[in-house]
């Protein structure tokens, strides 16, 4: 379990995301929360949204944040009989999986906010759906398939009966030179504190800007 904090407040005053990951199936749940929420609020959310779906877990790794202090740990230890381990900063085996998931989640949020506008918490349910239906290299399948034992069906892949079978792309062909003259490209930019891009700043500011036309090649990996 971990928190993404410091997000732009939404219309519902959410400014954080509670990230809960199943270490076996790699499936994840993302909940929009508020910084001012108490440990009791988190405990209630856990019972309503996690316990009812997945039952009681043997162990839980908690972030050391103030939100995960006495009341929540008491719920897990005494109320549910779950062993609680506190994460250690910069310990890759304990917090690495959560950090990778958070990075992916932030990228997906950023893309949705730029493309579809609106508050980021409006997009969170479908982002969770897309994350869990995406191939995970450590288990060689999607978390959804690992969790439910079958592939997920989703609206993009539905066809009316008789219109033909679903066609899956077997491979993606890449050219030797990924960038050609007259191509239009985006430029990757580093986040800058206080700088607003596309109406967003901070964690949801875009990582790429553009697009720009390639005029000529000036080196092996340099273009004008």
TrEMBL record:
The name this protein goes by in its record: Integrase catalytic domain-containing protein
Record-level Gene Ontology MF annotations: nucleic acid binding
Cleavable signal peptide: none
Pfam families from the UniProt entry: SH3_Tf2-1
Superkingdom of the organism of origin: Eukaryota
UniProt organism field: Solanum verrucosum
InterPro entries, A to Z: Integrase_cat-core, RNaseH-like_sf, RNaseH_sf, SH3_Tf2-1
Domain named Integrase catalytic: residues: 1-151
Gene3D superfamilies in alphabetical order: Ribonuclease H-like superfamily/Ribonuclease H
Transmembrane parts of this sequence: none
GO-annotated biological processes: DNA integration
């Amino acid at each position: 379990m971990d928190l993404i904090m410091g997000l732009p407040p939404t219309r519902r005053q959410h400014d954080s995301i509670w990230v809960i990951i199943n270490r076996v199936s790699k499936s994840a749940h993302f909940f929009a929360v508020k910084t001012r929420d108490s440990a009791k609020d988190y405990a209630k959310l856990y019972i309503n949204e996690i316990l009812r779906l997945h039952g009681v877990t043997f162990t839980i790794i908690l972030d050391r944040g103030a939100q995960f202090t006495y009341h929540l740990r008491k719920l897990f230890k005494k109320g549910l009989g779950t062993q609680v381990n506190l994460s250690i900063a910069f310990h890759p085996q304990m917090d690495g999986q959560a950090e990778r998931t958070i990075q992916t989640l932030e990228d997906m949020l950023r893309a949705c906010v730029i493309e579809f506008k609106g508050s980021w918490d409006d997009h969170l349910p479908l982002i969770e759906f897309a994350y869990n239906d995406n191939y995970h290299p450590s288990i060689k399948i999607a978390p959804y398939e690992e969790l439910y034992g079958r592939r997920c069906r989703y609206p993009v892949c539905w066809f009316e009966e008789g219109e033909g079978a679903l066609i899956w792309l077997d491979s993606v062909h890449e050219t030797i030179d990924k960038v050609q003259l007259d191509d239009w490209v985006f430029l990757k930019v580093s986040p800058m504190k206080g700088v607003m891009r596309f109406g967003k700043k901070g964690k949801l500011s875009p990582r790429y800007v553009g697009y720009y036309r390639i005029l000529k090649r000036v080196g092996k990996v340099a273009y004008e």
